[in-house]
């Protein structure tokens, strides 16, 4: 029973970490796209 609990806790922690990582990548990609758009429109690069 204890092994199952430990495995479940580890899986939950990894899932949470993966969600945060994917969210961060999305924010980074959005910031990069905004920078490219600003340069294309002649604003500060």
UniProtKB/TrEMBL annotation:
Domain of life: Bacteria
Source organism of the structure: Brevundimonas albigilva
Keywords for this protein: Cell membrane, Lipoprotein, Membrane, Palmitate, Signal
Pfam families linked to this entry: Entericidin
Keyword Membrane tagged: yes
Similarity field: Belongs to the EcnA/EcnB lipoprotein family.
InterPro entries: Entericidin
Signal peptide stretch: 1-18
PROSITE patterns: PROKAR_LIPOPROTEIN (PS51257)
Name of the protein described by the UniProt record: Entericidin A/B family lipoprotein
Any coiled-coil regions, as ranges: none
């Amino acid at each position: 029973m204890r092994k199952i609990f430990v495995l479940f806790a580890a899986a939950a922690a990894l899932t949470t970490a993966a969600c945060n990582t994917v969210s961060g990548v999305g924010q980074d990609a959005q910031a990069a796209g905004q920078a490219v758009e600003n340069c294309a429109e002649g604003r500060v690069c």
